[in-house]
Amino acid sequence: MELLMIKTDRLILTPVTHEDMDIYTELLTSKEITKYLPGGKPFSPEYIEQYVPKKVEHWAKGFGMFFVSLRGNPAVKIGYAGVEVIPDVNLSDIRYAISSEYQGLGYASEAAQAAIDFVFSAGALDAIYGVAVVDNLPSVKLLRKLGMHETDVRLYDSDDLITMLIQART
């Protein structure tokens, strides 16, 4: 596959590879980052070692997770963002996480918007969902900023989640 790279004003998004275990380990072992993820606590190193290869394999669908780095310093990985298929329901949702030191600067919304634009411009999907824990107000606000609106579709079996949707413009 030709090297895909998306550049925004401040970021570079590159498809996740096995070499990106470092950013996933940093994010998925952080108490602050994982408190709103399934389980609500840091993931084990063994889980992460199995998790990242699944992110790499997902790219066979033509879209998936990107690691996010700073455009001014591409060696600095600050997070991930992308769209993935949820196997149990065969629908797709946006996923993102940014290192604590880079939060509150608009990087998550910039990266998530770039990932959504990529998927829609590639014609890979007609709709993308976004899911957030109701109490995670910054994430709920981000989904709205992306142009998503609430839907009654339930992607995960949990009562404390809000599900939103954005559809491709036709």
List the SSEs and their pairings:
Blueprint: E1 6-7, E2 11-15, H1 21-28, H2 31-34, H3 45-58, E3 65-70, E4 73-86, E5 91-98, H4 107-121, E6 127-133, H5 137-145, E7 149-150, E8 161-167
Parallel strand pairs: 5-6
Antiparallel strand pairs: 1-2, 2-3, 3-4, 4-5, 6-8, 7-8
What would your notes on this structure say?
With 170 residues, this protein is an alpha+beta fold. It contains five helices and eight strands; from the N terminus they run ββαααβββαβαββ. Strand 5 (91-98), helix 4 and strand 6 form a beta-alpha-beta unit. The longest helix has 15 residues, at 107-121.
Secondary-structure element series: EEHHHEEEHEHEE
User: How many strand segments?
Assistant: 8
Strand arrangement across the biggest beta sheet: 1-2-3-4-5-6-8-7
First-last Cα distance? 28 Å
